[in-house]
Design brief:
This protein is 44% helix and 19% strand. By secondary structure, the chain is α+β, with helices and mostly antiparallel strands. The chain has a four-stranded antiparallel β-sheet, with no helix packed on it. Strands 3-4-5 form a three-stranded antiparallel β-sheet, with no helix packed on it. It is rod-shaped.
Length: 451
Amino acid sequence: LCGGISGLCTAMSSINGQLLYKYLLQVNFQDIVNQNRVEFDSLGDIKNGGYDIDNLQKHWDIYRSEKVGLWMSGDLSLHEGEIQWPIGNSSYILKSVCSQPCQTGLFRIPKMEACCWVCAECVSRQYFNDSLSQCVDCPLGYWPHENRTSCTKVDLSHIRLGEPIAIALVVFSSLGFVLLLFIAYIYIKYNNHSIVKASGRELCYCIMFSFGIICVNCVMPLIPPNISLCTWYRISIGLSFSLCYGAMLVKTTRIYRIFYQNNKTLKRPLFISPRSQLCMVATIVTLRLLIIMVWIIIQPPEINRVEYSNGKEIRLLCKESLIGVAITLSIDICLIIVCTIFAFLTRHLPENFNEAKFINFSMFAVAIVWLAFIPAYFTTDSRLQFIIIPIADYISVTVTMLFLFIPKLLRIFGYNSGRVGIMTSTGNLTMKPAAPTATLVTNGALFLSGN
C-alpha cells in the first residue's frame, strides 16, 4: 500500500475499509505479554486469543474501567453481579438490539440501519402478507385473523332470539294475538247482539284481520330475509294498513255524512249499508295493492349484503329504495290525515254518540305515533329500519283496537246502561232501554245512546 515504506504514508489517510479488512485477516502478532499468538480466522474472529470485558463504573465522582469478565477462544466468563448498569439496577440487563420483536398482529417496517425496524399495525380489514412484506386488504366477505397473518370468512349475522329486540318483538306479537283472539271471540259469540250489529261489525272484522297481519309482521324480522319474505313485507305492510285505516276512514266519513245530512233532512244518506261500506274498503285496499304491484314490477325485491363495522359484520337486508318507501309512507300519512280530519269534524256530535269520541281519540293518538316514527325510520341504523315500520303499525293499530273495541266490550258485558234512540228513515223517533251505542245498522235505523 505504501510502496515498501514502513510506518504511515499518504495512501493510508483515506483507506478503503474493505481493503483494510482484507489485510487485517492476514495479520498475526504476539500479544502484549508474549503468551499467545494473535491471528484472525476468515470471519474476523480471533483464533487463539481473547478479550477482557470491562465495565465503566462510577465511584463517587470518578469513572473507572473495571474488569468484569473474559472471552477466550469462544468461552465466556462473566461476573454479572459486578456489573453496574446506567439505570442503577444490577439485576436488569440491557439488550444490545436495535429493535424489539413485534407483538402479535404487528409487522416490521425496516429502517435504513441493518437489523432495525419499526413495529406497525395493518388498518382495520388488512392482513400482513409476508411474501410482499406489506399489508393487503382482505377480500369482500372476509376479515383478518387476530394475528393479522391471514383472512377468515365472515359469517352472516342476524337478529338472534336471545337479543332484547327479538324478545320484545315476540312479546308484542303474542300480546297482540291474545288481544285479537279475545275480541274476535266476543264478537263472534255475540254476533247478533245489538252493540255488535250497531258498531258496523263488517268494518270491525276488517280491522281485526288487519291487526292479525300486523302481529305476524312483528316477528318477520326474526327470519333471515329472502325474496319471498321481502315481497311479503312490501305487500303485507300496505295491505294491513290500508285495510285498517280504510275501514276507519269509511267509518268516520259515514258518521260525518249521517250527522251533516241530518241537520238538513231526515232522509237516509247514500252508501251507508254494510255492502257499500265493504265496497269502499275494498276499493281503498285494491288501489293500495295496485300501487304496490307497480312498485314490485319497477323495482323487484332484492337481497343486499350490507357490511357494518367496516366489514366485520355482514347482514342480509331487503333492498328498499328511498323513493319507494317515501311513496308508501306518504299514502299511509294521507290516510291517517284524512281519518284525523273527519274525526276532528265529528268532535261536536251529540254527547250520547260516544263512538265518534273514541274514534277521535284513537286517530289523534295514531297521528302522534307516526309523527314520532317517521323521523326515526329515516335517521336510524339500516339494521333497525325494517323493524321500525312493523312496530309503528303495531302500536298505531293497537291503539285503534283499544279505543274502538274496549268500550263496546264493556257495554256488551253490561258495565254501562243507557237509552237508545232509534231514528228510522221515515223520521220517527222512539226511545227504549238498551245497551248504549250509536251507528246505522243494516235496515237503516240510527242508534243514538249515552251514558
